[in-house]
Design goal:
This protein is of the alpha/beta class and about 300 residues long. Helices cover about 35% and strands about 15% of the residues. Helix 1 crosses helix 2 and helix 3 packs parallel to helix 4. The longest helix is centred in the middle third of the chain and has 18 residues. It starts with 8 loop residues before the first strand and ends in a 44-residue tail after the last strand.
Length: about 300
Amino acid sequence: MINDRWIGIGISYGSYRDGESPGKKSVSSEKDILQDMLLLTADNDVSWNLIRMYAADAASEQVLKTIKKHNLPVKVMQGAWLSSTQTDEENQQQISDVIRLANEYKDIVVTVNLGNEIFVDWSAHKLEKSDYPKYLGWVKRVKTETEVPVTLADDYNFWNKPWSQEIAQALDYIVLHAYAMWNSQPLENALPWTEKTFFDIRALHPTKQIVLGESGWATSAITSNGDESLIIGEASEIAQKVFYDAYRQWLVDNHIVSYYFEAFDEKWKGGEDKPDGIAEKNWGVFRSDRTPKMAIKEHYSKGK
């Protein structure tokens, strides 16, 4: 809530501009981040006053500093990036850093997410079931040392497994990823599939609030590029608008907290050596140059 107004329709945000990336340890400028935040909150009809960030690092802290300095109407789900490809020390540092950010920016950080797609079978940075005690220890530590709800964001193909129950019970709520596009759904079935997936997971975890942490529709794809062979739905700005409009209305009608994926195209994703047309680079409702795509263009045609 901001000023008694529900802000549950959120969006995933990466500050990286063309040429910037996590691999380069880029930290976007205050000017660029301020431009982004003003774009995201410019129009009351489509304002995103709730954003999700993925790693407890200098790039995220720069965003938090900018929000605080300019007193922007933006709240944050702050993530800790946990991975089997990192050392235990690196994972522990993420835990320590996310605790610090949650406490130093307590007026901005409203929840903490510990890990992104770290238990689903297909994850390239998957933790194992033998890591459960370690992970549950991290959850307990963050819950003890912060004052905000703690969660995990993972794909529906983890949350629908019996072994997700132990993790779910330790969390304050569940963050669900559900991509109709990656699950070989045509556009006309995208929302029905998403809705069914959401309610299926809610039925499996009836004591937990379910938040849709990632769902979206890419505006470009190259089906010969690896997993993009799974995509059968039309990848275009027209198709994205169809999905975006229906999805957003469904969220509002059902009062479901969500983080649409994503705010801006990010060209580093999928590998900077890969063509700009691959799906990973094209999930934004804005292009990487910050111009609006068709899904939201009407809201930005008034000089905003």
